[in-house]
Amino acid sequence: MFKENNSHLQRELFGTFNLVSPAMSKKMTSSSEYLFYRLIHCRIDEKIFAGLYSEEASRPNASINTMVSALILMKHHDWTYEELFENIQFHLLVRLALGLDDLERMPFCMATLFNFQNRLIDHFIRTGENLFEQVFDRLTEQQLKQLKIKANICRTDSVMVASNIRSYSRLQLLIEMLLRIYRVLNEADQESYKIHFERYLGKSSGQYIYTLKSGELSAELTMIGELYHWIDHHLMPHYQDEQIFKIFERVYQEHFSVVAEKVIVRSSEEMRSSFVQSPDDLDAAFREKNGHQIKGHVISIVETATPENGVNLITDVVVKPVNIDDSTILNERLDIIKEKTPEIEELHFDGGYGSEANDRKMLKNEITPVQTAIRGRQAQVEIEINEISGDTYQVSCPLQSVVATATRKRLKACFDKSVCKNCPHNQDCRLVEQKRWRVYYFKPEDYLKQRRQRMIENIPPERRMLRNNVEATIKEFSCRMRGRKVRVRGNFKTPLFAYGVAIGVNFGRIRRFTQKNEERELIIISNFMRIFTWITGLWKEFRNQIEYLVKLQILQRKYPFLIKCSF
Candidates 3.50.50.60, 3.90.1300.10, 3.30.420.10, 3.40.50.300; correct CATH number of 133-165+287-372+464-509? Predict the structure, then answer.
């Protein structure tokens, strides 16, 4: 049964704050952990998770805001589960961050936390909804409003992360599947069908392939294909509910085909980056970029970048298979980004995000694209397209400028051939030669592409380098991974890692921003007190001088001879 946790709002009579000295209590309330408690723990909407629990009267759930806060701290500090529970049990400030006001009670055990995550995974599989994303979105929305952060200018970038899986070769993966299939068979079937698997038993998949010579690989793949075909016909009907057999079916279809009851091994050219990379992570994909091979996912983020902001926050996080292009990810997220930050007017990104589809979608959402690099080769002779009004375009080359006319499928600009003959760029120009004209054909999408590529020249110089700072944000994600490899795997736990880190990064920025403001206020107060003390000192000196003069005048009237004697 779902029950909200409000116990942390009332301090206990014999709680931590009432047991320590006032000086220590003051240090505790000024710590970053107490700020985490106020900014994160107290603002987690537990009702988001109500659907995970029964509506009937039953035993209430463990405190959800405490478990969610614990997972965020775990990702923020890059702790293991053992380190998380050790800190909860023995670290006073960590307990303070989780709203625990005593020194003994554990809010949940490790099994409870795992069961909570399993509920989240089941909900994700059933609905496609990651509830941690909602936690991130609501916290960020509150933070943007409270700190009055402008989101009219944003920037985006991505980082490829390797899944926590073993890197298998094609043959090693196929043998690993055979070993795992044999392990799930019952004892009777293992004894009956041992002859089919005996070749691969007694050693790991890696040890087996090390004994093969390069010339034997092709024959080995054929033998494995025949064994896969036999498993599909004889074992699959009896074990189809087992998870490993569901994975087997996918691997079998990806690597082999059957023609006239004969198994054919698919060629390496037919292999796709979306094929299963490991039986432990079916969502991980393969990608090679800049000489590096990655099997895993890509984390794409969007953050505010308005120069007037005292602090900028991450506003959108998404995790996709690593073989999906950045431009495709952005296209899927643009409507969501606009919904989260309706005031967005300008988005900065690198060359990997530019595409015709994104240009059209940004035009629809009234977002100005600012691309800091051009993807692909640049033309030797620049043909510039400018929109005059509606469907009318002016096309210019280094020597001429003409108005384009519409054809049946596209637009064309006709340039004077006599002028082109004397042009120094004549040989490098990409215009189409015709009888009367040299013609340039284009579509409205070409104008949008040029507009995107030229936009960086049309904004003030101080805004042209805004995208570069997003790389520091990417580093904040990367530093929590070893060799850009996350400790988790799968299409749920990797986003859980990403949202937890994003919440932690935003919290860290707010904490530093708050500390700077407090230091600035202390400096102002200190300077004011110095001026006040100086003025007070002057006033005391002035008052003393007045009192002295008054006393001197009184003495002169009463005892004039004293004044004469003094001279």
Answer: 3.30.420.10
Q: What is the pLDDT of residues 67-119, one digit of tens each?
A: 999 999 999 998 999 999 999 999 999 999 999 988 888 999 999 999 999 99
Per the structure block, which two tokens stand in for 407?
């054809």
d(CA 388, CA 419): 24
| Domain definitions of the chain by residue range | 7-129, 133-165+287-372+464-509, 170-270, 377-458, 532-567
Calculate helix-pair angle for 217-234, 170-184, nearest 10 degrees: 30
Residue 46 to residue 5: CA distance in whole angstroms = 8
Cβ(19)–Cβ(71) under 8 Å? Answer: no
Pairing between strand 368-371 and 346-349?
parallel
Cα Rg for the chain, rounded, in angstroms?
35
Amino acid of residue 224? I
- CA atoms of 1 and 353, how far apart (whole Å): 45
Taking the alpha carbons at both ends of the chain, their separation in whole angstroms is 99
d(CA 349, CA 156): 6
d(CA 106, CA 222): 56
Question: Tokens standing for 471?
Answer: 């790389």
Degrees to nearest 5, angle at CA 41 with 482 and 504: 25
